[in-house]
Amino acid sequence: MRRAQIKMFETLAVLVVFFFFLIFGASFYFRLQESSLEREFDRNTQLRAVQIAQKSITMPELECSFAGVQRENCMDVLKVQAFAELLATEEAFIDYFPVFQYSTLTVRQVYPSQLEWVVYNRPRGEQSTLLQIPVLIYDPNTNRHQFGYLEVRVYA
Amino acid sequence: MADRRVAQLEVQFNWVFILIAGAVIIAFFFSVVQKQRSISDQRLAFSILNEMDAITTGAAISKGTAQRLDLPRQGLDIACTDACTCSISVGAFTRDAGDKLIFAPSRLEGEDVVLWSIDWRMPFRAANFLYATNERAKYFFVYDEDNAGSQQLRRLFEDRLPPLVGAEFVTPDDVDCADNPDCVQNENYASVKFIFLDIPPDFGNLQLHESFQETDVSALHVSQGVLTFYERSSRRSTSFTPYRSYAAGDATLFGAVFAADPTMYECNARKASQRLAYVSHVIEQRGEDLGADVALVERGCVYATGPLIGPLWTLATEQSKTITESFQQLPTIADQLAANNEQLIRQSCPTWY
């Protein structure tokens, strides 16, 4: 009887140790999964930022065109101002949400003078990804190009 | 004797206990593996959907290009509801199409997908249309050699459609199997569309090959900007239900060819009209700013925003709510602005676009 009881307790002890190692291994595995998911989340946010930047750079609402021909990496300052005014209206702000989502779009001129236009602003939370793309800023009134960059801040 | 019996019982009980414990452990691991497999499949589908979203965004802005890309094993489902919510699905995951204007069959399956993008100009670029198809989607363009309108449309499609698109140009005799045993057949296509170029289809007398009975077959009649979509109520049905809509420019004609159904076509046409309204508003505002510039006025640069942009904006706004017969007038209004733009070029003035 005693031997059988000892055997039973031996079996139970093995099981306890086994489950202890199992739980330890599982918690280690799930921690790895969590960090992997966080990396994937960051990657997706960066991908979204690139998409929004790509779309902004090629939008007919902002880009320079001459006789119907688009000039790459160029923004027309009059269009930038008009588009910023348009997006200040509620209807357009809602309609352009699928394009820009939660982000802030700013056109900054750095030379010869420093100016900036906030085209779209819909922040969310503190975490964000920032992309800056050099552009030419064209003024049709003076027929001159200025240097600047498009700043796209996408919120996670 | 009694001791021996007790010992036997205890040993047996020990083995029963071991069996139960072993079964519990196996069941536990089995459930963990099943759960992880399900999570892994979901992650894969979600990841693929993200990738497809990025790819279609890139394809949409690469206007004028046709590219072949790998298709996910689960296939791609694209659909628009009557409320104009268009979505792209991979497996169980669905994502809103957002600002993308995609014309595609309802289901794309196979090894790859062909993405083709062109811009919609009215007369300035207002939006990019993205067309998706693959080798399992077939388009039969039915033309009449004796019909000038039909020949003109045929030349348009022959010249503009990329070689990657499964297009074939046939005559009505090639489609009707009543008198022609060598009529066109289904060669393992998942979807087939017959596009009648300025020839009204006579489905009452038209006899398609029996191989099309189990295929998703639809038709489109194109005639001077008027589009008539024909859909079958079921795969084995021989009757087609017509639905009339309208086109404005070549890009919309291509959209009608690639769209799975008239709902998809009209939803994208309405979204495109909304974009046109916004872009024309920006151009109008820009024109007013240019018109207020004293130096430009002295040079004789005139920007008549009212008569030129106003009608374009008004019509585009109307069509963004519902596509009507007036949609066909957009190119005419756009031509007036284009003519004025040419005038500004000749005067060395800043152009509208």
Give a verbal description of the structure:
With 156 residues, chain A is α+β, with helices and mostly antiparallel strands. Chain A has one domain. Chain A is 49% helix and 33% strand. Chain A has four helices and six strands. Chain A has helices at 2-57, 77-87, 90-95, 97-100, and strands at residues 63-66, 69-76, 103-111, 115-121, 128-139, 144-155. In chain A, β1 and β2 (69-76) form a beta hairpin. Chain B has three domains: 1-134, no CATH class; 136-260, 3-Layer(aba) Sandwich (Rossmann fold), CATH 3.40.50; 270-346. In chain B, the strands form three sheets. A six-stranded mixed β-sheet of chain B has the order 10-9-11-12-13-14. Chain B is built from eight helices and 14 strands. In chain B, α5 (262-291) packs antiparallel against α7 (305-321) and α7 (305-321) packs antiparallel against α8 (330-346). Chain B is flat and about 125 Å long. At the A-B interface, α1 and α2 of A face α1, β8 and α5 of B.
Descriptive terms for the model:
A: 156 residues, alpha+beta, six-stranded mixed β-sheet, B: 353 residues, alpha/beta, Rossmann fold, 3 domains, 8 helices
Write the layout of secondary structure elements.
The complex is a heterodimer of chains A (about 160) and B (about 350).
Chain A (H helix, E strand, L loop, with lengths): L1 H56 L5 E4 L2 E8 H11 L2 H6 L1 H4 L2 E9 L3 E7 L6 E12 L4 E12 L1
Parallel strand pairs in A: 2-5
Antiparallel strand pairs in A: 1-2, 3-4, 3-6, 5-6
Chain B lengths: L1 H60 L4 E5 L5 E5 L5 E5 L2 E4 L4 E3 L3 E2 L3 E10 L3 E9 L3 E6 L5 H13 L6 E4 L1 H4 L15 E7 L18 E8 L2 E7 L7 E7 L3 H9 L3 H30 L2 H5 L6 H17 L8 H17 L7
Parallel strand pairs in B: 5-8, 9-10, 9-11, 11-12
Antiparallel strand pairs in B: 1-7, 2-3, 2-6, 3-4, 7-8, 12-13, 13-14
Helix pairs in contact in B: 5-7, 7-8
In short:
By secondary structure, chain A is an alpha+beta fold. Chain A is 49% helix and 33% strand.
User: How are strands sequenced across the largest beta sheet of chain A?
Assistant: 1-2-5-6-3-4
Q: Per DSSP, what share of the residues of chain B sits in E-state strands of 2 or more residues?
A: 15-25%
Name the strands of the widest sheet of chain B in spatial order: 10-9-11-12-13-14
Based on CA inertia axes, which overall geometry of chain A fits? rod-shaped
Overall number of strands of chain B:
14
The number of domains of chain B: 3
Uncertain spans of chain B: none
Structural class of chain B: alpha/beta
Structural class of chain A: alpha+beta
Name the poorly predicted regions of chain A.
none
Q: Mean pLDDT of chain B, rounded to whole units? A: 91
Principal-axes geometry of chain B comes out as: flat
